Amino acid sequence: MSILGNEDLTFRIKRDFEMTKFLIKCRPDYMFKTSHVGGESFEQININSNVIVQESNISQLIENGKTVVVLYDAELKMDCYNFKDGVSLLNTVVSC
After folding, report:
1. Closest Cα to residue 50, out of 58, 59, 41?
2. Residue-wise burial string across 2-18, b where 16 or more C-beta atoms lie within 10 A, e elsewhere
């Protein structure tokens, strides 16, 4: 995300990454996806409704200490913010 400039953790994910399994194990406060790095709108994917937000809204959540995951579809990249245990999160990503 360009507003923040630095990610807590960045992962490259495989094409058959099991997002539902990851969400169940990881339980982020918020999870968003966008088509590519530099995308202007983000869809929240860990809820039942179709909520579209802007990057500034996500930045505010991160600054407030919420655990946030941003998935970039085209690059198969995932940025994770405000997670306490990076090794545990890495193991969760690898197992999904």
Report:
1. 41
2. eeeeeebeebebeeeee
